[in-house]
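Justification of computing resources. Each target in the renewal requires a structure prediction run like the one illustrated here; the chain below, 142 residues long, is used simply to show the kind of job we budget for.
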Amino acid sequence: MREARAGQAVKEREEKGLQLQKAESAKLKKAAPLYKLKIAQEKRVVREAAKVVREKEKTERAKQVAERARQRDAQDTTKAPQLSKWSNRKALQPLEQNIKRKEQVVDAVGGGEASGAALAAHPRQRGTAATSNFQINISSTS
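Resulting structure tokens:
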């Protein structure tokens, strides 16, 4: 009898344990979709928050780029256009201007008419040394 009672008690415990397991698994099965929905909703909220942050950063970068472009344009308009040094070289001036300058130098020295040899001087001479030598040569010939 004792063994029968002990066997029956063990059987009842096993059945209660089985029922508890079944109840727990049923509860988890019900909770699983709700849990999944809750997790999915939290992920969605995190994604939306990240999207808002990215959009703010994007608009901020666009504002900075536009501001830099505006400053560059303003700076470009305020700068005086600088002529390149290459275009200012005397050797690149037309030949007629060089001849007119030499004629003016001859007239200023008082040499009267300039000789053909003086006018045929090399047009690339420039600087003070070249003009002073030119004046000396003309004044010494007159």
